[in-house]
């Protein structure tokens, strides 16, 4: 009877990208173990993806694996970024349900079943919602609002949907997400593309246990660029529209000047300053659009050149076998 019950247990895979989390990740794993003991019918595994930080996070991950065989560690060859680390963890995950969360303790594992219980036939992706986050800085809130606006505009994200790093999803969605092999993953865009029912669930958001966010301004801009270029061609269409508008205004202005010259021959001055201003505006627009096109072409080139999404340098499994 116990064996038959065991066969019915559902496996939850916790995927956690780790960066400078040597002082926090042990507590997060302990909280996961504690909460999983409170609910029957579930087994779990924890996949810790070390994104090659400068601290001793990898050593601590290996220690956690020795203490708890349900913990698996993956070590990246260098710092690829949070979303690339998530993709590495997703491909390693074996669970029926996959939960991703932060390594700093701000996404409390005690809230996990609030997300998991929302998964059903009509809902296959659940985002933790902490829109009233009282611990985020003004800069991060501004960046979050901007990302939310661009995702709504470029990715057709429902306005009421809130993106966060605390996500529970089904095996079927993750299998679709894993089909993306490009070097610039944007997990939220992949979830939108792969999931048919995406909802929010209110969860608690705790204060960071140690340190500060691993996201610098440049990393936030790179993440925004991934979402900007990977899943939408709207920027290119806007460029074409701007070009058409400028050409239309130029044609109308030229027609106006010709007619004015024919009627009032002395009314039209050479207007060198006006010409220079117009040339600078049009030249700036042209260079802007060339830069945007170059960004798209560059990313296509890197994808065609088989630039890796991530490189796994070491795993705790290889350590166990040696």
Give a description of the structure.
It comes from Ileibacterium valens. Keywords: Cell membrane, Glycosyltransferase, Lipopolysaccharide biosynthesis, Membrane, Transferase, Transmembrane, Transmembrane helix. It is a single chain. Helix content is 50%, strand content 14%. With 322 residues, it is α/β, with parallel strands linked by helices. It has 2 domains: 9-232 and 308-321, Spore Coat Polysaccharide Biosynthesis Protein SpsA, Chain A; 234-304. Strands 7-5-6-4-1-2-3-8 form an 8-stranded mixed β-sheet, sandwiched between helices.
Per-chain topology:
Elements (H helix, E strand, L loop, with lengths): L1 H7 L1 E9 L6 H12 L5 E9 L6 H11 L3 E6 L5 H11 L4 E4 L11 H5 L8 E5 L8 H17 L12 E4 H7 L9 H8 L3 E5 L14 H14 L3 H30 L8 H33 L7 E4 H6 L1
Parallel strand pairs: 1-2, 1-4, 2-3, 5-7
Antiparallel strand pairs: 3-8, 4-6, 5-6
Helix pairs in contact: 6-9, 7-8, 10-11
């Amino acid at each position: 009877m116990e064996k038959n019950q065991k066969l019915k247990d559902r496996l939850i895979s916790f995927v956690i990208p780790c960066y400078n989390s040597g002082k926090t990740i042990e507590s997060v794993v302990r909280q996961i173990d504690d909460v999983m003991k409170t609910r029957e019918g579930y087994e779990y595994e924890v996949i810790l993806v070390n994104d090659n930080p400068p601290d001793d996070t990898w050593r601590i991950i290996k220690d956690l694996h020795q203490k708890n065989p349900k913990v698996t560690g993956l070590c990246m060859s260098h710092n690829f970024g949070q979303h690339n680390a998530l993709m590495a963890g997703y491909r390693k995950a074996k669970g029926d349900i996959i939960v991703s969360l932060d390594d700093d303790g701000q996404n409390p594992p005690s809230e996990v079943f609030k997300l998991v219980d929302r998964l059903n036939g009509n809902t296959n992706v659940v985002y933790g919602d902490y829109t009233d986050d009282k611990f985020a800085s003004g800069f991060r809130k501004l960046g979050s609002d901007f990302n939310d606006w661009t995702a709504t505009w470029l990715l057709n994200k429902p306005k009421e949907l809130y993106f966060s790093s605390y996500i529970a999803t089904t095996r079927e969605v993750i299998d679709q997400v894993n089909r993306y092999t490009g070097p610039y993953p944007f997990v939220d865009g992949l979830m939108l593309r792969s999931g048919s029912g995406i909802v929010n669930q209110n969860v608690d958001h705790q204060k960071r246990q140690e340190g500060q966010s691993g996201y610098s301004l440049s990393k936030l801009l790179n993440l925004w660029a991934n979402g900007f270029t990977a899943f939408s061609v709207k920027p290119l269409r806007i460029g074409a529209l701007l070009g058409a508008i400028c050409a239309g205004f130029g044609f109308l202005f030229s027609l106006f000047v010709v007619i004015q010259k024919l009627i009032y021959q002395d009314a039209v001055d050479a207007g060198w300053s006006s010409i220079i201003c117009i040339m600078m505006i049009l030249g700036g627009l042209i260079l802007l659009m060339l830069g945007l096109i170059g960004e798209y072409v560059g990313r296509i080139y890197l994808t065609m050149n088989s630039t890796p999404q991530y490189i796994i340098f070491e795993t705790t499994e290889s350590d166990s076998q040696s």
